[in-house]
Amino acid sequence: MTIQADKVVASIITIGDELLIGQTIDTNSAWMAQQLNAMGIWVHRRVAIGDVREAILEALDREGAVSDIVLITGGLGPTADDITKPVLCEYFGGKLVRDEATYLQVMEFFESRGLPTLQRNVDQSLVPDVATVLHNTRGTAPGMWFEKDEKIYVSMPGVPHEMKGLMSDHVLPRLQEYFQTPAIVHQTLLTSGMGESFIAERLTHFEASLPPHIKLAYLPSYGLLKLRLTAFGADKLSTAAALSIYFHQMKELLADITVTDEDLPMGEVLGKLLKEKGKTVGTAESCTGGFIAHNITLVPGSSAWYKGSVVSYANEIKSGLLGVKQETLQANGAVSEAVVREMARGALQQLKTDYIIAVSGIMGPDGGTPEKPVGTVWIAAGSAKELVTVKHQLRYDRLNNIQMTATYAMNELRKLIV
């Protein structure tokens, strides 16, 4: 059966006390929302609840009343606090029965590892007899698909890679068969160097000209601002064609601050440029402690253009490995233009790359002085022929200061080589 709808609405319920006390960060609902959005399904609400029977029943009632699809993760494990299955049985009716395929999978899982199979492990093969079982090839807890009052409910494990496997293997294909949804197309412009309010001011007339089926969203992210245009229509092809006209208009208005017209992390933006030019880069990091290298090496294939890093957190490493002069450190301090210049030159010699990024700063919460308060950062980026230096005064907490510094540093090199 395929249902055609102008708007298909979904809710996401994540279950687990660990989510409510902040012990575990919920990444599941964000990933699921992205997948649903790409299919043209609107996520109406995301709800986190504890391992409490009444809370689960209430959430199922509430979300089922407003949504066509309710996705549920968590509470399917082998321990006493994992109560989702019996509560689902209570809500949808029926009784728990053994799913033979899951039982055999559980037995093989433990036997192949030379581990005893406990009764609580065997019980993971129990499922409500009114559910369609979605077999989990990445773990021992199966997914379960329910239909009630023309609504779809899907329960999955809370382990992220297991949930993603079930979504990709079973849930998303089934939803595509079940619902015929409107097309949703996104295009994203990544900008740097101008604040959100100033960009909004520049785009005032452009925003006013947008038709009702095209929306603009402002998405700040660590020294960058993403501008996402979203269009809704009957089919992907015509919707994308209509969106591209307005996207090109926006690009022209923001040409001077555009980083890329793709929704990419800064490490990948920089990597694409270096790969196109056949050049390499290295990093010399003090205050970021390798975070720039981390961002770069998250990009698949980065070994083609990234050679390595010297994490010169201590002054003796700056001197011993990068050749920063003691007199430079004594006269200027570690957080200074002179020091990042010498760090960059030393790293170019050590790593033998075409380009280099060097950073030194005070990330906080301690270590600042009246002359160099917390958040003071010096960046050097460039090559043996051309090296630029930039100072930033950041005003965030330690982690955000590190993340902002990494973004700013990679962007400085991008601007130099673009």
Automatic annotation (TrEMBL):
Q: Which InterPro entries match?
A: CinA (IPR050101), CinA-like_C (IPR036653), CinA_C (IPR008136), CinA_KH (IPR041424), Competence-induced_CinA (IPR008135), MoaB/Mog-like_dom_sf (IPR036425), MoaB/Mog_dom (IPR001453)
The secretion signal range is none
**What top-level branch of life does the organism fall under?**
Bacteria
UniProt cross-references to Pfam families, sorted A to Z: CinA, CinA_KH, MoCF_biosynth
List each copy of the MoaB/Mog domain by range. 11-177
User: NCBIfam families attached here?
Assistant: cinA_nterm, PncC_domain
**Record PANTHER family:** NICOTINAMIDE-NUCLEOTIDE AMIDOHYDROLASE PNCC, NMN AMIDOHYDROLASE-LIKE PROTEIN YFAY
What's this protein's family per the entry?
Belongs to the CinA family.
**Protein name, as recorded:** CinA-like protein
Per the UniProt entry, what species is this protein from, by scientific name?
Answer: Chitinophaga ginsengisoli
